[in-house]
Amino acid sequence: RKPRHLVTQLNIPKPVSCPSLVHTEAASYGQEIDGLSQLEKLQVLGQGNGGTVFKVRHKQTLALYALKVMQCDRGTPPNPQELNILRQTNSPYIVKCHQIFTKPSGEVSILMEYMDAGSLEIYVKSRGRLSEDIICTISRQVLKGLFYMHSRNIVHRDIKPANVLINEKMEVKIADFGISKIIQQCLERCSTPVGTRAYMSPERLDTEKHGGYNGFAADIWSFGVTMMELYMGYYPFLEPGQEPDFLSLMLAICFREPPSLPECSSEKFRDFIRCCLQKDDPSKRWTASQLLSHPFLADA
């Protein structure tokens, strides 16, 4: 067992609440955990941007958490973008960060809330394609999370089924800010080519053909593709079972028209997806705030 002085705990100050978006429970960090030695690793939940996520249990209270462990080079500070965003976020639609621990070796451990149903990717694989009613419930919560982020000049840049978590209460929360970027000025644009290509917007894959990249609009494109996948049960830009590669994705996303939902879907849902997947002019894509008032959600 390592001496206690080798582990540094970073206490996270409580952010200022926004009453219209934040429940009072979300501001409570619960019992403070003194060190990693108080946590028992139960299983690996997955691997994300720069780290491995474990399901852990607090030995004293038996409370369950998710622990993301990232390894940085010795003497190199951890990714400040992810840590700063985690410190600043306080929303019921964003996975909550409880504490952060660092070691001199460069290891950073982020203790987060545990979502017992896993990601939407896992949820759909176990239950099959989802109904419009369930997608409506999921969409509303994800959009509230995106509205919270975008109104604070935060771009996620990797919205996809694997990065949206759900629990058995049907609470849905955005996770994995490993490649998020805070935009300091409203007109500033992200230009780093990161994220999962299958969910990238056309202008992000081919800037010359489709114009400049707007991170907020790109998040909406990724959200729209994600909601389509939940309904169809497979990635909508390719045929079922087709393995994605860079060339096939470039052709499908940049040079073909966006896919349409089947005729059995409602007109409101089809229009909702069209508002997300405006291809030729990203500025015509609806914002998170506008989508929250779309009839598909507003009339539900």
TrEMBL record:
Keyword Cell membrane: no
Lineage top rank: taxon: Eukaryota
Enzyme's top EC category: transferase
UniProt xrefs under InterPro entries: Kinase-like_dom_sf (IPR011009), Prot_kinase_dom (IPR000719), Protein_kinase_ATP_BS (IPR017441), Ser-Thr/Tyr_kinase_cat_dom (IPR001245), Ser/Thr_kinase_AS (IPR008271)
Binding residues for ATP: K68
Keywords: ATP-binding, Kinase, Nucleotide-binding, Serine/threonine-protein kinase, Transferase
Pfam family, any one: Pkinase
Protein kinase domain residues: 39-297
One BP term from GO: response to other organism
A GO term for molecular function: MAP kinase kinase activity
Enzyme Commission number(s) from the entry: 2.7.12.2
Reaction equation(s) it catalyzes: L-seryl-[protein] + ATP = O-phospho-L-seryl-[protein] + ADP + H(+); L-threonyl-[protein] + ATP = O-phospho-L-threonyl-[protein] + ADP + H(+); L-tyrosyl-[protein] + ATP = O-phospho-L-tyrosyl-[protein] + ADP + H(+)
Family classification: Belongs to the protein kinase superfamily. STE Ser/Thr protein kinase family. MAP kinase kinase subfamily.
Protein name, per record: mitogen-activated protein kinase kinase
UniProt organism field: Citrus clementina (Clementine)
